[in-house]
Structure formats: structure tokens, C-alpha cells
Amino acid sequence: MTNSIISKTNNAAVSSTGWQLAWRFARREIRGSIRRFRVFLMALMLGVAAIGTVGSVAEAMRDGIANNARILLGGDVELRSRHTEIDQKLLAIADAYGTLSTTTQMRAMLQTGDERKLVELKAVDSNWPLVGAAELTTESGATKGGDITLAAALADNGIVADAQLLRMLGLAPGDRARLGNAEVRIAASLIYEPDRSVSFVSFGPRVLISNKTLEATGLAQPGSFITYRARLLLDNMADAKQAVTALETGAAETNVRVRDVDDAAPGFDVFIDRAEMFLVLVGLTALLIGGLGVAGAVRAWLASRMPVIATLKCLGAPAQLIFRVYILQVMMVASLGVSIGVLIAALAPALALDLLADYVTVPLEMGLYPVPLFIAAGFGLLTSFLFALWPVAKAEEVRAAHLFRSLVEMPSGRPKTRYLVMSGGAVVGLGVLAFLATRNLSLTLGFVGGSIGSLLLLAGLGEVLMRLMRKLPAPGYVPARLALSAITRPGSPVKSVIIAFGLGLSVLVAVSLSQANLSRQIDARVSEDAPAWFFIDIQPHQIDQFMEIAASSEGVTDISKTPMLRGRVMALGGTPAADFDPQNASAWVLRGDRALTWAAARPKDAEIIAGEWWPEDYTGPPLVSMSEEEARELGVWLDDKVDFNVLGRKFSATISNIRKVEWESFSLNFVFVLSPGLLEAAPHSWMATTHVTNDAAADLVEARIGDTFANISAISVREAVATAQRVIGLLGSAVQMTALVTLVAGIAVLAGTVASTEAQRLADSVILKVLGATRLSITLAWFLEYALLGLLTAFAATIIGTLASWALITGFLQAEFVFHGKIVVTTAFAGAAATAILGLAGAIRTLGQKPAPLLRDA
Fold first, then answer.
1. Is there a single domain that holds both residue 26 and residue 149?
2. Is the Cα torsion angle 694, 670, 708, 178 positive or negative in sign?
3. Which site in 72, 229, 294, 348 is 20 to 30 Å from 764, CA atoms measured?
4. So what's the pLDDT on residue 723?
5. With contact defined as beta carbons under 8 Å apart, do 570 and 645 qualify?
6. What is the pLDDT of residue 458?
7. Whether residues 272 and 417 fall in one domain
8. Which of 230, 256, 237, 261 is nearest to 101 (CA)?
9. What pLDDT, on a 0 to 100 scale, did the predictor assign at position 12?
10. Which pairing describes strands 556-572 and 685-692: parallel, antiparallel, or unpaired?
């Protein structure tokens, strides 16, 4: 039957039915080949699952924002103003379209006994919340208006406080505390706040009060950092566009910002996009490394099928049929791995509900997201096709005469032109999918270029190490000599292991070293430069008394102060703020309101790198000093104009000088410092920092200021530093976890490399046993081989990871780089140990086979 089938292939293989015949052969032969692709399947499944999971969870978050936009926003339209209350004319326009609710938010100090805690204060009216319901807890349990309503809780100077805050201060419902000038009653604990802003950063726990209680506290003073919000719930959703247009027109000449449900979570969507891009690139890196495993696994598998291929050639099978049979088998296996990966990614949003619930306030929507799953599947299939194409294309060049040779080897060299064209098409397809996944062309091109560069660098380093090893004299110890010869022989796996395993290990070294340097920078700043406290919301009439009290406090060594108010950047260099790329690293300057200050004299720590500071008695047109990093990234420089809106007043200032700002310091830093003569008369407040000799002095100055000024809030630098350290630790751990994905892919490639050399290992062990070698000596030789391979990989990872960390710290962060040898050695050589153990574990199973059967076959 086989002969009759093959006799038809000369015509069928080149016709439309050729694929049908290839499918019949592939389907029958694949049954015994799947087990050889276990490693290939794992690497492929890992990469596809990572990419699909990231995309699915990101889409779940976007859907959560879109489907719960009214709850997140607190209504259908929001008006927001900083420092000054929203104009009554605007409120009247909004009131004509539906129901209004106003809130006032600011920071304040909640005091009980001798303890003070910075809190996020929110004063609400009787209509709040317009959408959803606040969940409260009393001694009788959680309620939504059961035994206590929000109105009842906030009556008579009652407050509703975050449950964690009450635990920290040892308070319970019914206890008393002080807020500003008023004594308040703890009425209930806050479990859920429906319109809580989506953010990862908060300066304190939430406290809800009524507008009447806020008035009693005396905290809302002109110039204080207060955010006023008015939420509108439309009577008729058909009026949404008309209402927004009317409000935007009315707010055009004010500092009020208008947003609707399409912008319910400002800034968080940017975070989702950036996190998704980063994690997708990590998944692509894992898939790229897995592709190297695909190539090795396919090559080893085809080498085992050489007799079958040669037999088919003897029976008249054309080259095209051979290609189709084996590319179909590879893609069948790839489809299996991709399907499993897609299934995992499809279930990811359900798993993320529990994992992310404590970290993000965005509700995750359960559902199936086909677009990210399609992109992930496309990545898996195209990667498999690309890396399998070359060895499969060479398989069709096997000659029938190979069947009669005792040594059967895969043909080497470059495949035919049509297969090179197919490879180019696959690369282009992967590039298109990468763009669809990241939606950023420059990032996609950078990733492609960076991947190629990294692979070439690792390959070059592997080649250099190979050449150096070949020049070493042969060791006298026999197992060591065997290990060295195995490393340096033609076809050695050094390059492939260094490329695959070394890439993930390099990332781990770079992350660990960078994290250690960042932590050292913060620790050094804290010990040398950091103040003990930041004091905010100091009123102009209080600043002199504040300075007097702070200066007379024992242990205070230095005090810095500066005026501050908030303003919005409307345009830079003649370009409206809305026209700048939101992906720009400094686009944050243009989002929301920015802190502004002014000064006649140049600040003592200001380093001017371009232009000159204005004279102390300057009285001309407004000038502004801008920070260097933001100026370069936003494309402005000396003599360019910056348009501001401060409290509804618009003006332009000319950039007269550029300052170098160290944002990682704990100084009072600003992007913009204006010349005097313009903002002094506007409602503003002061900020101040105090440096002290010890913790006792820090507690003393905070207590004296708190006892004298009820409205001044103190932010502890110690707590801020602890938060920064936690954030750095969390970010470092997150990046390390993603780097481990690439390491797992590298391990898969290592396992595939071991599996592909199994036949060679078996032949070597048989020969060595015949020559008198013991199982122990062979085991030692193989262990030393993989240990040496691991050391070479660790050495390569140390060089590349250290260079990457140095470039990040000195070039991007512009900080001093310190090499931490212990961290590097621990990280890199832990990978080396893993290489030795995994390699030996995979190779040692061939030792149990008897030499006699192999010798009889020979």
C-alpha cells in the first residue's frame, strides 16, 4: 500500500491534493513523535500564556473601567477645581441637567491624645454618593444603611474613618478625636467608597465628614491644597454631550476641569498601557528564547527521522512532500502548545480577580477577550514556524543514498531562497503582531533591534569564550579533560545555552544590581540630605510664626521654605498640552495641575546648565526656570514660551534658564520656578522642611507645630522613605518574577539541548564503558562539563547584566553606580548551579543503558 501511495506523489505532491497526502503521512507519523516535543511544548505554552494573560487582564481592567465608569467617576460628569471653589455660574449650568453633589478633599492631621496621623479628608454633602453606596461598619456589623445611615453617621461632627486608621490609632466607633479646631466623634468605619480615585499612591487613610463639620474644623483656608469636585447625575443621558459642551465652554476661562465617563480613571489607563507593554515584551522575550528551543528540538527530532526521510526519498517522494509532511507535524505540535497556552490565558481574568483585588480598585470584568488571545496564538504559531522552517527546509535535501550510510547527518548550510522569503514573511508577521500588542511602533522596533543585538552580543561572547577554552592546556584529571573536550568540540551547545539561559540570567543580574543601587541611593540620601518632616498648607500669615517655632526647637539644624500654588500647563513652545504624546516620559507634567513656586534669588542648590537666573530685583515680563530632564523630553529650551492657567488666569512666561534637578533627593523640587511679581497676590500656601539631629528632635518639632497650628499637615519623611523602599522592593520583585519567565524558557532550551544530544551521550558512554571507564567517572565528567557550561553562562550574564545596570543607573537615573559583588555572584552562580544540576539530571539517564545492544547494532 505504501508503494502505491508513494507512486502517486510525483503528481499529487505538486498539485492541490499534495497537502492532503502530506497530512495523511504527518498524522500517522506524529503519534510517536509528540513525546520528543515535551520541552518544546512547555516553552511555547509558557510564552503564549504569558502574552495572552497580560492582554486578557489588561482588557479586563479596561472593561472594568468602562462598565463601572459612573461609579468610579461618581456620576456622569465631574467638575474639578484646585485651591478655589467652583464658580456658582458653572454649578447653575450643571444643575439644569440633573442632580449635583459637591465634595471637598484635602489632607489633614487627625489627633487622638498625643498621636497624630495624616489623613485624606473628604467632606461630602447630603446627595453623596450619586451612584453606588458607601459601606460602613459599626459594632453591629457591616451595613449599607441598616442600623446606621451615612447621614446619621456624619451628623453632629461625626466622622467615618478607614478601618485600618482606627486600628492604627486604637479607636472604635463612639471614641473622640480632634480634627483641626473641632472635636469629632468616630461614628463608623469605612469599608467601601464608591468613587474613590483609582490610584496606587495615597498620603493617608480616608476620613469622611460633612461639609458642616469641615467648616467647624477651620481647615479650609485660602491657598490650602484643596480639591473641589462637583458630580452631575444626568436626568437624561441623551443630554450628555450637550451638558459636557456647555460646561467646557463655561469653564474655558477658569481653572475648572471637566471630564465625563470616557475619562473615569485618568492616568490609570496610561498605567495599564505601559504595564501591558512591558509584560508583553517579557512574554515575547520568553517566546524568543523558546524559539531557540524549537529550533534545537526540531533539529534533533529530524535527525532521528533521517532513516524515514531517506526511505521516502528511495520510494520516490519529492522534496516538497518531505517539507510539507514535517512542517505539518511541527505545526500540529505547536497548535497543541498554543491551545494550552491560550486556554490558560483565557482563564487568567478569573484568577486575577483574587490576586489583584487588594492592589487595584478597578473592578475586573469576567469575560473572554478574543483579541489578546488571537495575538498570543499568532505569536506562538509564527514563532514555531519561523524557528522550525530552517531545519525542516534542510530536511528535504536528505538524499536517498543516506539510507545506506552508517552515519546519517542533517544537511548543513543555507536553505533555498523560497524558504528565506518565508522566514522574512514570518519576521514581518511577528513585527505586526508585536505592534498590535504594544500599539507603539518605536517600542516594537526597539524591541526587535534590542533582541537582535542582545542575541548577537551573547552569541559573540559565547564564541569568544569557546576560543579561549580551546587554548587552555588539557587537564591531567581525566573527567576534567573529557568535560573540556565536550565543551570545545564542534557542535558544542555552549552558544545556544549562553544565548537562551544567559539572557534571562542577565536580566536577573541587572535587576538585582539596579535594585541594590537604588536602595543604597535612598539610604544615603536619608542619612545625608533628607529632612525629618515636610510641612504643608502653611498660611502666609503663619509662616513667620512657623519659622520662629521651628528655629527655636531643640535639635533643628536647618529649615527650608517656599511658597506654592497649583496651576495647569496649557502649552509648551506654542504647542498645546493636549497635542503632546501621552507616552512621552515627561507627559506627566502636562496632566492635571502642577505645583508652582517663585523666587527672586536662585535657590542655593540650583545648578544652572543653560541661560541665566533673573536679577533679584527683576520686575519685567514673566520668566520661568524649567528642569532639564523635562525640558529636553518635551522639546523646549531657552526663549520658548510656557502658557499657564493659575486659578483661572492665563499668562505666558519665557524660559530664561534650565536647571538640573535631582528628583531622587528630598529637597523642595519644582519643574517650574517663576520670577517674582506675578503670583504673590494669588491665594497660596507655604511648604517647609526641617532637618534635625535625631528622632527625638523630629518628634518635638512636629508636636510643637501641631499644637500651635491645627491646619498645618506634617508628612513624615521616614514614612515616605519606607514607602519608597517598599515600592522599589515590590517593583524589583515584580521585574524579577518576569525575568524568571525568561529563565524558565531558558531552562526549557537547556533541557531540549540535553535531549538533542542524548544519542551522542549514549554513544560516548558506551565507548567509555568499553574502554574501562566507570559510571562514577563518566558522571563526574558530565557534571564538570555542565558546571563549566554554567560558569561560562554566569560569566556572560555577569558582564551583560552589570553593563545594563551601570547604563541604567548612570545614564538614565544619573546616579553613582556601585558594584555589589556579593549580589552578582549569588544571582549569577545560582544560575550556574541550576545549569549544572539540570544538565546532569537530563544526561545521566543514558548511563543506565547497556552497551551490548548498541554495539550489536553497530
1. no
2. negative
3. 294
4. 62
5. yes
6. 75
7. yes
8. 230
9. 42
10. antiparallel
**Which runs of consecutive H residues, i.e. helices, occur in 408-488?**
417-438, 441-470, 478-488
Same domain, 599 and 676: yes
Give the C-alpha separation, 809 to 816, whole Å.
7
Answer yes or no: do 242 and 290 share one domain: no
The residue type at 251: A
Q: How far is CA 579 from the centre of its chain?
A: 25
**Segments in the chain below pLDDT 50:** 1-17, 140-146, 200-201, 406-408
CA atoms of 409 and 388, how far apart (whole Å): 17
Query: How far from 727 is each of 58, 518, 519, CA to CA, in Å?
Result: 21, 11, 11
In angstroms, rounded to a whole number, what is the distance separating the alpha carbons of residues 461 and 467? 10
246 strand-pairing partners: none
Grid look-up 518635551 returns 634
Question: Is the previous residue joined to 129 through a cis bond, with omega within 30 degrees of 0?
Answer: yes
- Listed in sequence order, the residues at least 6 apart from 808 whose beta carbon sits closer than 8 Å to its beta carbon are 510, 514
Residue 720, C-beta contacts closer than 8 angstroms, at least 6 positions apart: 534
Q: How many domains does the chain have?
A: 4
Is 377 a domain residue?
Answer: yes
Specify the pLDDT at position 652. 93
Q: What integer best gives the mean pLDDT of the chain?
A: 77
Does residue 112 form part of some domain? yes
Same-domain check for residues 625 and 670? yes
Residue 468 lies in a domain: no
> Global pTM?
0.63
Nearest to 55 by CA among 262, 384, 278: 278
Mark which of 710, 727, 748 sits at the end of a domain.
Answer: 710
Residue 813, SS3 per DSSP = coil
Tell me the C-alpha to C-alpha distance, in Å, between residue 776 and each of 708, 772, 773, 782, 846.
Answer: 80, 12, 8, 10, 13
Interaxial angle between packed helices 478-488 and 441-470, expressed in degrees from 0 to 180 and rounded to the nearest 10: 140
C-alpha cell belonging to residue 379: 505569536
Angle among Cα 86, 92, 95 to the nearest 5 degrees reads 105
Residue 778: CB atoms within 10 A of its CB come to: 21
Q: What is the pLDDT of residue 726?
A: 63
Which structural domain, as residue segments, surrounds residue 275? Answer: 1-68+267-439
Last residue of a domain, one of 242, 263, 284: 263
pLDDT value at position 665? 63
Under DSSP, is residue 584 helix (H, G, I), strand (E, B) or coil? coil
Q: How far is it, in rounded angstroms, from Cα 783 to Cα 482? A: 11
Co-location of 60 and 73 in the same domain: no
H/E stretch holding 598: strand 594-598
Grid cell, residue 761, equals 551521550
- The label of the residue with cell 486600628 reads 167
* Measured CA distances, 743 to 49, 505, 508, 831 (Å): 15, 6, 9, 9
CA distance 477 to 655: 72
* Same-domain status, 45 and 122: no
446 falls within a domain: no
Burial class of residue 811 in the structure, from the number of CB atoms within 10 Å of its CB (0-12 exposed, 13-18 middle, 19+ buried)? exposed
At residue 309, the pLDDT reads 79
Grid cell listed for 258:
471637566
